[in-house]
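I had to read the description of the data format several times before I understood it. For illustration, here is how one protein appears when written out as sequence plus structure tokens:
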Amino acid sequence: MTKYISVGKILNFHGIKGEVRVGYSQNRLDFFLTLNCVFIKENSQYKRLDIVSARPHKNFVIVKFAGLDDINQVIPYKGSILFVEEQTVRESLDENEFLIDEMVGLEVFDIETDKKLGFVIGVSNNGANDLLSVKTNTKHVCLIPFVEAIVPVVDMKNRQIKINNIEGLLE
């Protein structure tokens, strides 16, 4: 079964010729501009929309879909989440990039002592960088900056992360 990942949202129409204004996933403009198609979910089914053109405009992307040529045809799509097939996203990831759902559940270890410290329960972003939400052995939830200096090892094969457990990080 094909798995889909959200990459944006149709925020509004743009003009009267069928273009829409799309908000896209943070820091993924270049990826969005390479897409040939996206999917929207209608009645539990994914419907393909072919992209004719996409161009950056302020903090959005202006997109024209094949077959949607006037404002009346795009108004029903306002608010729709745009998806791509998971494999499309995976192919675009750099070596040290991961999907959020892959990170959740990874065990967290101290890189020096190899002691288990907890496990990842979520990933968020503070505008500067990603943060791992880690539930510690003492049941506290701590935010760990997902930067190489603090998280030097991500081992997806063994489902674990090794961190530099600097003083005060997990308090």
Summary: DSSP finds four helices and twelve strands in the chain. The CA atoms of residues 36 and 51 lie 5 Å apart.
